[in-house]
């Protein structure tokens, strides 16, 4: 299925192809690395702050290093909750915090940023709007822009 996805789809001219994979090191990861080895793929590792998630990401990190996939950085997802009833961009912790940043420091990898849960983002996905353009006044839009800038500017 990965081979079909990568070889049989006419993607046209692309600057980037983003492939979201499950956590850990599965057959999907091995297949992707095998099929994309000639174009030198990069990885952006995404974790939540909890130790269980960080443990999975460490496995993925070690896998990437073993097979020679460059790691652009680490993103901490679900780093808090933006309450729609509180002051603008007020982020409340719902889990532990800082696990992604700590992991990045431990492995000497760029920390790309923290992404909180924001109901406006969920609303945007359901309407299929472009978040960064539609909600550019929210801090999450600048968070995403900063993460993307850090990925495409090594």
Instruction: Give unreliable regions as ranges.
Output: none
The percentage of residues in β strands lies in 15-25%
Number of helices: 7
Q: Please tell me the CATH architecture of the domain at 2-82 and 93-118 by its name.
A: 3-Layer(aba) Sandwich
Radius of gyration over alpha carbons? 17 Å
Order of helices and strands: HHEHEEHEHHH
The total beta strand count reads: 4
Find the CATH superfamily of the domain at 2-82 and 93-118. P-loop containing nucleotide triphosphate hydrolases
Q: CATH top level of the domain at 2-82 and 93-118?
A: Alpha Beta
Averaged pLDDT: 85
The structure class reads alpha/beta
Largest sheet: 4 strands, mixed
Global shape: globular
Could you tell me the CATH topology label of the domain at 2-82 and 93-118.
Rossmann fold
- Between the first and last Cα atoms, what is the distance in angstroms? 31 Å
- What share of the residues lie within helices? 40-55%
């Amino acid at each position: 299925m990965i081979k079909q996805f990568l070889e049989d789809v006419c993607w046209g001219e692309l600057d980037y192809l983003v492939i979201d994979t499950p956590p850990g090191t599965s057959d999907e990861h091995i297949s992707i690395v095998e099929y994309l080895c000639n174009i030198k793929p990069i990885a952006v590792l995404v974790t939540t702050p909890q130790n269980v998630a960080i443990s999975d990401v460490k496995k993925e990190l070690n896998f990437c290093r073993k097979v020679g996939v460059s790691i652009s950085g680490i993103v901490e997802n679900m780093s808090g909750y933006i309450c729609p009833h509180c002051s603008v961009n007020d982020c409340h912790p719902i889990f532990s915090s800082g696990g992604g940043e700590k992991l990045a420091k431990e492995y000497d990898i760029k920390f790309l940023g923290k992404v909180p849960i924001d109901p406006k983002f969920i609303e945007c996905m359901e309407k299929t709007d472009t978040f960064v353009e539609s909600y550019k006044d929210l801090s999450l839009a600048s968070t995403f822009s900063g993460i993307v800038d850090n990925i495409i500017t090594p």
